[in-house]
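User: I'm writing a tutorial on reading structure tokens. Could you give me a worked example: one chain, its sequence, then its tokens, then a sentence or two explaining what the tokens reveal?
Assistant: Sure. Here is the example chain.
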Amino acid sequence: MRKPEGRSRRRRLALLVAVAAVVLAVDQVTKSLAVSDLSHHPVELLGPLALRLAYNTGAAFSIGSSLPGLVVVVALALVGGIVWFARHVPTTPAAVAVGLILGGALGNLADRLFGSHHGAVVDFIYTRYWPTFNVADAAITCGCVLVAVTVLRQAGRRGTGGRGRSADRGEERGDAA
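And here are its predicted structure tokens:
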């Protein structure tokens, strides 16, 4: 008989992979649409929000734009680290968070390795107040925020002696029979 923890771990890993695959697919489709539809003119949306085609050879905020080879090596190392960590993701929210980060990292890495833009990442979401970004960047950012929230929640639970919200209701945690 298999342990329930083993099934839970496999479910979290499957969720992580599914989230990463969806992010990667949506990212690549939107970048393709941006290249085909925005190459001649931007699209103004609402207020400061617009769709404008841009190419980034660097990492976040164009850091390392003069060293695109190094950016690829660092990105590959980060993806490898994320994949290694993914095998041991402890909770469902952490699985979603890591899936968002992995999908975004793979989306940008795919641009660098397989795109026809000389190692540049396609960016197209423009605001006046923030560098132009893409779906992969947004997924990475949301994933990092979710990781932070998950870590803070776990730290808060440890601060209550390991009791979760059930302790607030006067219930004891224990193994279900």
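What the tokens reveal: The chain has one domain: 8-158. Residues 98 and 107 are 14 Å apart (CA to CA).
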